[in-house]
Design brief:
The chain has one domain: Ubiquitin-like (UB roll), CATH 3.10.20.30. The protein has 1 helix and 5 strands; from the N terminus they run ββαβββ. It has a 5-stranded mixed β-sheet, with no helix packed on it. β3 and β4 form a beta hairpin.
């Protein structure tokens, strides 16, 4: 199945070189979950703070489907 991945802020460095607009398409086996995607992208798990699946907050254990859009965000700092 194919999943669209958006990596934001400091996570964008884990995108492949041919990625455009902080986005890429990744081929994953059926029944993959978001944590599988994070590992496949080479993103250290503690670096991911927020996960959105098709625009809705999701968890690492959520199963993915063909055509899903996943957004990963690092912890946000500020003051």
């Amino acid at each position: 199945m194919k999943v669209e991945i958006h990596l934001f802020a400091s996570l964008a460095k884990y995108l492949p070189a041919d990625a455009k607009n902080k986005t890429c398409i990744k081929e994953l086996p059926t029944h993959s979950v978001i944590s599988d995607l994070i590992n496949t992208m080479g993103v250290p798990d503690p670096s991911v703070k927020l996960i959105f699946l098709n625009g809705v907050h999701a968890h690492r254990s959520t199963e993915l489907k063909d055509g899903d859009r996943v957004g990963l965000f690092p912890p946000v700092g500020g003051g």
